[in-house]
Amino acid sequence: MIEHFDTIYTRNKGATNDDFKNLYAWLRGQNFPSQVVPEDYKTLISESNGGIFLYGEREYQFLALEEVIEYYDLYHFSEFMPFAYPFAMDGCGNFYIFNMRYDDASVYAVCAGDMGWEEDECYFVANSFKECLSQPKHWDE
């Protein structure tokens, strides 16, 4: 999946099976209703566990799996957006998230300083991770 991007600013070593086991243990421990991350996301993270990539005008600052857990706590997702899975930032202070309240692979964006599940706080980006990555324009255009 890495080859999809126009520019790779930073690339990390890929996530291991143990990294994914730790993530799934954390999801279970947090009682996430859905505990399955999309397969194409897993493929990308297996190639680079975090990193900064550009496709068109869209920047992705992918969080390493351990950073997903760290940012979930640091930004108080459990309080403001329970069961949101922050997988990347956009370079402008917004998170890309999966809504893991349901078995829904849709991608949303939310401002790190104004988080919530309401329509004026959380914005639909794409029906899937793959669809999100195929969009060259910034998500709010």
UniProtKB/TrEMBL annotation:
Residue span, Knr4/Smi1-like domain: 37-134
Q: Which Gene3D superfamilies match?
A: SMI1/KNR4-like
Tell me the InterPro entries matching this sequence.
Answer: Knr4/Smi1-like_dom (IPR018958), Knr4/Smi1-like_sf (IPR037883)
Origin species, per record, is Amedibacillus hominis
Q: What is this protein called?
A: SMI1/KNR4 family protein
